[in-house]
Specification:
By secondary structure, the protein is mainly alpha-helical. The chain has one domain.
C-alpha cells in the first residue's frame, strides 16, 4: 500500500466519522449557545465557597451547561478556585464541563451507541461523587492554599465568553428576541473556535490509527485470555495512559475511543479513555502553571484514580445489567466493520439531518457576519486573561 493510498484512506475515514456526527454536534453547540445566551451567570462564584452537596451539584450543573473545551474548562475552574471556590466544586465543574455536556453525549451516541452515552453521563456522576470522597479524605490544606496563591507562570490560554444575555424577563421573551439569537450565534462561534482544532486532530488521529494500526496491535496492548476482572482493571488503567500521550482532548477523543473499542479494549477501558481528556500532557503542564507542581500532581492523581475506579464500576454495572436483560445489550458488541461503515456515504436519515444542520450553521454564520462580535477576546491554547464562561 503506497503512502498516498494510506493518506487518502485515513482522510476518507476521518471525513466519514465527522459526517456521521455532524448533525448531533451542531445540535449540541446550538443548545449550549442558547443556554449561555438565555441563562444568567451572575453571582455563581459566591455560592461555591463550600464543599457541600448543594455546591457540588450546582458546580456540576454549571459545568454540564458549559463548553466542552478542556482548556476552557480548566481555565474556568482555576478562576473559580482562585476567587475562593472550594477545590471540590471547582474540580466538579471542570469534569462536568468536558464529560457531561450534551454535544459529547450526542457524538458518542452516533459513533459508539447509546450505551456509551448513558455510561458517560452516569459514570460522570459517579466520578464526581468518588472525587468528592477522595479529596475530603485526603484533603491537603497546605497544598490547596499554596495553589490558590501560586503566581501563574507562562502564558496559558483562557477563553472569555463575556456575559451577554438575551433581552427579556421570561425565557419565551428571550427566545423570541432577535438580539438573543445574535448572542446565541456569537456563543456558538466562540465554542467552535475553542474546540475545532481538538476535533480536527481527533478525527485525523483516529483516521490514521484506523488505517495504519492493525487490530493485532491493540490485542497485544489490551490483554486477553485472562480472568474478566483482571482484563477490566488492566484496560481501565491502560485507557487513560493512552489518552495522556495522545494529546487529544474534548470531543476529539471520541473517534479514537471508537477505534480502540473496535480494536479490543473493554467497555470500561473505553470509558476510562474518554474520561481522561483532563489529564493529557499539555493540560497537566497547565495545571503546573496555574497551581505549582505539588497541587498539579495531586489533582492529576485524584483524577486518574477516580477515572479508573469509575470505569471499573461502570463496566461491572453494565455487565450485570447485560446479564439481567440480555435483549437490551447494555454492553454493545464491538463492530469490526466500523471503519468500512463510516466511509459508506448514503442517502439516509443522517444525510437529511446533516443537511438541516448545515442550514442551521449557515444561519448562525450569517448572524455572526451581520453582527460582528463585540465580546471579550479569545485566542489559542497559549495566551489571554481571565475566563468567565460559567453559566448560572
Amino acid at each position: 500500500m503506497s503512502l498516498l493510498t494510506v493518506i487518502g484512506q485515513a482522510l476518507l475515514t476521518a471525513v466519514g466519522m465527522a459526517w456521521q456526527v455532524l448533525w448531533s454536534l451542531v445540535l449540541g453547540f446550538l443548545v449550549s449557545g442558547m443556554i449561555q445566551a438565555y441563562v444568567s451567570r451572575a453571582g455563581m462564584r459566591k455560592v461555591l465557597g463550600r464543599a457541600g452537596m448543594r455546591e457540588i451539584a450546582l458546580a456540576a450543573g454549571f459545568g454540564a451547561a458549559s463548553s466542552s473545551c478542556s482548556y476552557a474548562a480548566i481555565a474556568a475552574a482555576k478562576s473559580m478556585f482562585k476567587r475562593g471556590a472550594h477545590l471540590i466544586p471547582a474540580l466538579a465543574f471542570m469534569f462536568a464541563s468536558t464529560n457531561l455536556v450534551l454535544e459529547l453525549g450526542l457524538v458518542l451516541w452516533q459513533l459508539m451507541g447509546w450505551q456509551f452515552a448513558l455510561a458517560e453521563w452516569l459514570g460522570g456522576v459517579i466520578l464526581i461523587a468518588l472525587m468528592t470522597l477522595l479529596v475530603k479524605v485526603t484533603y491537603p490544606s497546605k497544598l490547596v492554599e499554596e495553589g490558590r496563591i501560586h503566581e501563574e507562570t507562562g502564558k496559558v490560554q483562557e477563553h472569555d465568553h463575556g456575559d451577554e444575555l438575551a433581552p427579556g424577563r421570561t425565557l419565551w421573551q428571550k427566545f423570541r428576541s432577535r438580539q438573543g439569537w445574535v448572542y446565541v450565534a456569537h456563543y456558538v462561534a466562540m465554542d467552535w473556535s475553542m474546540i475545532w482544532k481538538d476535533m480536527l486532530i481527533g478525527f485525523l488521529v483516529a483516521g490514521v490509527l484506523g488505517v495504519v494500526v492493525p487490530n493485532s496491535f491493540w490485542n497485544v496492548l489490551f490483554i486477553r485470555g485472562v480472568p474478566a476482572p483482571l482484563q477490566v482493571v488492566e484496560n481501565a488503567v491502560v485507557g487513560p495512559l493512552i489518552a495522556v500521550i495522545s494529546f487529544v482532548c474534548s470531543i476529539g477523543n471520541v473517534p479514537l475511543a471508537a477505534i480502540l473499542f473496535a480494536g479490543g479494549i473493554t467497555f470500561g477501558g473505553a470509558i476510562a479513555f474518554l474520561y481522561a481528556d483532563l489529564i493529557v500532557l499539555p493540560i497537566i503542564d497547565i495545571y503546573r502553571k496555574y497551581y505549582g507542581w505539588r497541587l498539579a500532581a495531586y489533582i492529576t492523581g485524584v483524577l486518574f484514580t477516580t477515572m479508573v475506579v469509575t470505569a471499573i464500576l461502570i463496566d461491572a454495572l453494565f455487565s450485570g445489567l447485560d446479564r439481567l436483560f440480555p435483549a437490551v445489550h447494555f454492553i454493545p458488541t464491538a463492530n469490526p466493520h466500523f471503519l468500512q461503515q463510516v466511509t459508506m456515504f448514503s442517502f439516509d436519515y443522517t444525510f437529511v439531518l446533516n443537511i438541516l444542520a448545515l442550514l442551521v450553521v449557515g444561519v448562525l454564520v450569517y448572524l455572526n457576519i451581520r453582527h460582528p462580535m463585540r465580546m471579550h477576546g479569545h485566542g489559542e491554547h497559549a495566551e489571554h486573561g481571565e475566563h468567565t464562561h460559567m453559566p448560572a
